Amino acid sequence: MDPMLVLQMVLAAVIAATLYTIIGVAPGTDETAVLAPVTLVLVLAGFEPIVILTFFISAIIAKKLTDSIPVAIAGIPGGVMSAPMVEHALVLKKHGMPDLSIRKMASGSVIGTLIGVPVSLLLANALAPLADEIKAFADPIFFIGAIFLALMSKNRWIALVSIIPLALLIQGLRHLYWGVGIVPEDTNVFISFFLGITIGPVILTLFELLNHDKRVSLPRYGKKEIFLKKSAQQKGFPNPFKILTKMEVGISSLTSFVGTITFFLSPVGMTILLGETVSSGVKDPVKRASRAISSMDALTNAAYIGGTLIPLIALGIPLSPTAIGPANALFNAPPVYSLEHNLHHILSTADFVWATLIGAAVALLITYFVTVKYALPICKFVFRKVPHEAMLGLLFALVLMLAYMDAGWLNIGGVLLIGLVAGFLHRLGVHYGVQFMTLYAAPWIVNNLFL
Fold first, then answer.
1. Where are the transmembrane segments (predicted)?
2. H or E stretch at 154
């Protein structure tokens, strides 16, 4: 491999690890919202595919490592995937062990990465011979996937009923664009619709703020006070196999393996299911919480790695919630990538292995060390100096720019419309997985069920 290309990969991994170490600590940052737009920009900017993949792998591992910090210290989830761990982290905090909580979760993430990477690569190569058969049924699989994820969600009936109306809205906008000649009839506006769904809750909230009665009725708060307990600083490079007990290492490895091979299922659902299952029999509250958070964090890391690499290497189409969400730009980012020409078709098996290993190694070396050793000062800095609203505003502006690039001024209105509907559905309990699956299945739904 070209030494300059390797240098670019390492540099991309370092930048990703540094950036998402900070972003991961910011409370409430959704994985899709902070990863998908940045990855898309890198693709559209023309970076080498192997460099983009290295960046993404490093970013996702760093994000999953650091979103445990606000959970442990303040009881605030750093992302959607860390929300199931809040209750157990608060138990450790109540017993005066937030530092232990951070170390357990971060070490679980390391186990998840160490298990998830090789299992993903092996399973991807095992599924590769079946790629043509699977891709032949891709469109109905997306529809079935939307139904399956809807049935798995908490508000299943709302999610199930929403599939057809959302598909009609998406295809209706596409036909409008074709009819007025904004885009050719053989072109599907996709990426801006995807981003509209991604920041739908933000768009809905911003529109609500324009309503005077709604704005006046909102509660007002002063500055939020968060008390951080000073803990002893970790000496040397932390060893996850010493931080976790042998039982926790074994269970975290098991949940990581299961999370990887069930890459096509909802990572949040699997995290809650397996995390609660493996810890339910432990009576001591501290031991139960430690086992739960370490196994949950391991599973989330493994599930994100598997959900990205297995569809990307074996199929070239995004057949997992992670692939459809945060990793979508690796599969479909017109005009650079499409489902017929993306990283699956461009990179060799060796390229995938090197990009994954470099991205994972750099993220673990930088972010794991920083997370365990300097969690408290990082958390202080982010809570004081990095406004959550500023990051959301930047992402919102980026989405509007990409909407204009996709189909002009009219598409900005279209993306706002999709964002309003998606945000409303999200508030009703229709999670991103159902909406993204519907976005992919919309042409098939309309053409096969109504025409």
1. 6-26, 38-62, 68-86, 106-128, 134-151, 158-177, 189-210, 298-317, 352-376, 388-405
2. none
Residue 279: CA count within 13 A, CB half-sphere? 25
pLDDT for 355-387, tens place per residue? 999 999 999 999 888 887 776 676 677 667 767
Please indicate, yes or no, if residue 78 is contained in any of the structural domains.
Answer: yes
Q: How much is the pLDDT for 343?
A: 93
Domain membership of residue 221 (yes or no) is: no
DSSP secondary structure letter of residue 368: I
The residues that bridge with 337 in the sheet, in sequence order, are: 333
Q: Which residues pair with 333 in a beta bridge?
A: 337
Q: Which span out of 67-81, 337-351, 371-385 was modeled with the highest average pLDDT?
A: 337-351
Say if residue 226's pLDDT is above 80. Answer: no
Q: Rounded distance, CA 375 to CA 382, Å?
A: 11
Q: Are 114 and 241 in contact (CB under 8 A)?
A: no
How many domains does the structure of the chain reveal? 1
Longest distance between any two alpha carbons in the chain, whole Å: 66
pLDDT, tens digit, 9 for 90 and up, residues 33-48: 788 888 988 998 989 9
Residue scoring higher pLDDT (272 or 341): 341
| 220: in domain | no
Domain containing 51 equals 3-214+238-449
Count the neighbouring beta carbons within 10 Å of the beta carbon of residue 257.
18
Q: Residue 28 falls within a domain, yes or no?
A: yes
How is residue 285 written in tokens? 């509250």
- Written as one string, the DSSP assignment of 64-125 is HHHTHHHHHHHS--SSGGGGGGHHHHHHHHHTT-HHHHHHHHHHHHHHHHHHHHHHHHHHHH
Amino acid present at 147: I
**Residues 172-212 pLDDT 10s:** 999 999 999 888 887 778 878 888 887 888 889 889 888 88
